[in-house]
């Protein structure tokens, strides 16, 4: 890794954002083919910022920049780039550039780089690795996608459980070249390579040489099965404030270590996934092309169309009522919209609570009770407001009563549906963020239209 | 801290969730007043899990559990509990229990515990601290809310920049009692206490005693101003894969250190905030009471009511058209609903990209262009479908044409509004997750109804 330093950040909310002036200068330099200026502009940037920069410029600018810049794309930059852009770039890198890029990475970063490549590309990249590194990467790739086995690095620092501080320090000094770039714990293992404890480097350094590692091991110790889902791994790190945790195979033997920086990335991705799923966008990012974006959004809109037609069928039942009393058509979207919003509120709180394991069998009934009460209270409040609006706007007290009753019904149903639907999906093994939104708004649309138009038709005509 | 071990997690998606049987047994023991069983059930649990457990049971169960359980609420558990529940518990803890709880915490955890208490309660807790700890906590509290100064711990491990590995290790061994519980770097400082570099413990341990710390310092080094927003701090940790970073005052002098586990919590909270804001729920959690929940959701529903009425006013313009051609009323929610969904899709992608600094001045025009194209393509696709539905359902080719045109218009507008509105809010210094949703659906409702009913009135009557 080359030396790099982050410029002292300005205060304020854009401390770490790339500056617009940088883009302007860079584009001018690209247009002029001025490699020297490009080198000067790129030099102070951190690999992660270079990755962001590459994602934000146009594809042709990207290609030109990579060709002109003498710094060259190293493995660190490549592993920071978001999947689609990376795939594009890998397509035109020379074999020499690729070799240089992958050789300097830790095994987990190489895995991250190649896991979504097609078999042929993957094979090509792996060919550039040293034999031992290649075995490490292939082992990781043998674990399921999005598992701890994919996330871990195979390079671990371990010691027999009977070692002393002095033995440990001597061992580390004797083999500095074998140590991973970052490590925070020494993992104690028993003779069969099962991890039995973690010792922080801080404790080792501040203890006398004669002290046994076993006596200064951490109080909390979590081992992670290699097949465990990476979302669970991230949860464990966040919940138990872990810094690193050993990964074990099915026999309980040490096969690698997951560190908190990787867990943090997963946590952030999982949160993003929930957010995007709730909005019905799958894995869409701003750097996706038009075709990829259409592909990711159209199916969700299609589902929404079906449910919207369902709601329209309910309206169609009351065609005559509407023709005879047009105010019903004017006001009906209000009841549906309020229900949809209240349902989305309940739903989002529930989905989030399920993800953080705060909504479980032990409190689901309490939450449902609370949501019903909240729906009732909010419904009553807006029933009064809308009742008055109905009277003032259309001069009909009965219309006011009808919309008020429909409002209460729909907001109670919204609270119920917003909680029960994600909980039920989760019980069925479906991600509650997926599809919940559509189900909930379908329920609130149908119930909203039915209640308002049904009561209206019965009372007003 | 007492010794604790996480039971080997089962595989599957609920590896770390609290088991329903635990709650059942605990409730039975509470009912029977059986303190022994309670102790046995609580003993293997980690502080973070105990906190979750306390949040999930009823308030009266909580109080009884705390009274019966001999383990006692320590500071670690308290600092893990979510704000509302914690405030309730602090209300009935005895002064002795509080003293015990806060004394064993690092300064950043004490800050976290007391920062949202009212002045009197805060004063009471601070009184239990040793004078030096008290100064540390009060210094942190002097920084703005949600700043790096609040997040940092004041206990740092630092060394003059000219020290060698040997000097460092001797120093650490001589004063083990002064070391923080967890630390990952030694911070090198110049004579005026300005941090000039970070050395990882791993590098120190694997280097010879004569090696200068300066020569093995990390390549990447970020210092964080104490007044920086905690969201920016979390971004820096995630972006640059930091493990710990020194915090400096306005003169650039070292005042503390932020570690990645705290940054991870902030990142997770910021993501949660975005998710909840987008759904219009503020800081609502499943453990909030009914009154708190109503208070957090009602204002957003009120805003939605105003915008829904706005949409109804648009419909009211076309009352006559609807009375004469009821199919318009039946189909109009479809156009609005599709627009609202497409707008939410664009919006969510944009809000997320703004949060991760992937949508900036450098690519905003490209993203807007893309969103317009996506809107056009999706609009055209659904225009064809709805055109056919219009013809088949109502036997009117012209109605099909009308809804098709309205669909294209609304989906293009949705893509535009979903991107432009959050970008504009962000430019104005408003959190783009806040209120964007309401603005976007207002636009798509109004445009959708206006386009469909307007064209319909002109063409069909």
Automatic annotation (TrEMBL), chains A, B:
InterPro entries with a match to the protein in the record: CBS_dom, CBS_dom_sf, Mg_transptr_MgtE_intracell_dom, MgtE_N_sf, MgtE_transporter, SLC41_membr_dom, SLC41_membr_dom_sf
SMART domains per record: CBS, MgtE_N
Topology with respect to the bilayer: Multi-pass membrane protein
SUPFAM superfamilies: CBS-domain pair, MgtE membrane domain-like, MgtE N-terminal domain-like
Example of a GO MF term: magnesium ion transmembrane transporter activity
Residue intervals of the CBS domain: 216-273
GO cellular component: a single term: plasma membrane
Compartments in which it is found: Cell membrane; Membrane
Keywords recorded for this protein, A-Z: CBS domain, Cell membrane, Magnesium, Membrane, Metal-binding, Transmembrane, Transmembrane helix, Transport
UniProt xrefs under Gene3D superfamilies: CBS-domain, MgtE N-terminal domain-like, SLC41 divalent cation transporters, integral membrane domain
Main location: membrane
TM spans (from-to): 298-318, 324-351, 372-395, 401-425, 437-460
Function per UniProt: Acts as a magnesium transporter.
PANTHER family reported in the protein's UniProt record: MAGNESIUM TRANSPORTER MGTE (PTHR43773:SF1)
Record text on subunit structure and interactions: Homodimer.
Family stated for the protein in its record: Belongs to the SLC41A transporter family.
Protein name as catalogued: Magnesium transporter MgtE
Species the sequence originates in: Histidinibacterium aquaticum
Taxonomic lineage from the root: Bacteria, Pseudomonadati, Pseudomonadota, Alphaproteobacteria, Rhodobacterales
């Amino acid at each position: 890794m080359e030396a790099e330093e982050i410029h002292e950040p300005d205060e304020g909310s854009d401390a770490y954002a790339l500056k617009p002036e940088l883009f302007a200068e860079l584009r001018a330099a690209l247009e002029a083919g001025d490699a020297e200026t490009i080198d000067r502009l790129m030099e102070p940037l951190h690999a992660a910022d270079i990755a962001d920069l590459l994602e934000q410029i146009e594809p042709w600018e990207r290609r030109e920049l990579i060709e002109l810049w003498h710094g060259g794309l190293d493995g660190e930059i490549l592993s920071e780039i978001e999947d689609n852009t990376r795939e594009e770039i890998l397509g035109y890198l020379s074999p020499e550039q690729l070799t240089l890029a992958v050789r300097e990475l830790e095994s987990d970063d190489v895995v991250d780089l190649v896991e979504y490549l097609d078999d042929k590309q993957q094979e090509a990249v792996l060919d550039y690795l040293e034999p031992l590194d290649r075995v490490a990467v292939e082992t990781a790739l043998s674990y399921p996608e999005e598992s701890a086995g994919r996330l871990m690095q195979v390079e671990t620092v371990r010691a027999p459980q009977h070692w002393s501080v002095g033995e440990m320090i001597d061992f580390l000094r004797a083999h500095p070249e074998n140590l991973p770039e970052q490590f925070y714990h020494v993992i104690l293992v028993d003779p069969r390579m099962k991890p039995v404890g973690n010792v922080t480097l801080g404790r080792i350094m501040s203890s006398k040489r004669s002290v046994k590692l076993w006596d200064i091991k951490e109080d909390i110790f979590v081992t992670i099965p290699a097949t465990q889902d990476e979302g669970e791994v991230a949860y464990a790190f966040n919940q138990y404030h872990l810094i690193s945790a050993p990964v074990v195979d099915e026999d309980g033997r040490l096969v690698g270590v997951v560190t908190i920086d990787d867990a943090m990335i997963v946590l952030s991705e999982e949160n993003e996934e929930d957010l995007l799923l709730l909005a019905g966008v799958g894995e869409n990012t701003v750097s996706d092309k038009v075709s990829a974006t259409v592909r990711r959004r159209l199916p969700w809109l299609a589902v929404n169309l079906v449910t919207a037609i369902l709601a329209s069928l309910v309206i169609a039942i009351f065609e005559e009522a509407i023709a005879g009393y047009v105010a019903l058509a004017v006001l009906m979207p209000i009841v549906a919209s309020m229900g949809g919003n209240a349902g989305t509120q309940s739903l989002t709180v529930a989905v989030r609570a399920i993800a953080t394991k705060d909504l479980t069998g032990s409190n689901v009934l309490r939450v449902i009770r609370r949501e019903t009460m909240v729906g009732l209270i909010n419904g009553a409040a807006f029933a009064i407001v809308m009742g008055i609006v109905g009277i003032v706007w259309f001069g009909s007290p009965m219309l006011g009563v009808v919309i008020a009753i429909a409002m209460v019904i729909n907001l109670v149903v919204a609270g119920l549906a917003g909680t029960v639907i994600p909980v039920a999906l989760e019980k069925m093994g479906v991600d509650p963020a997926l599809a919940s939104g559509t189900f909930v708004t379908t329920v609130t649309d149908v119930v909203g239209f039915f209640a308002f138009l049904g009561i209206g038709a019965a009372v007003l005509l």
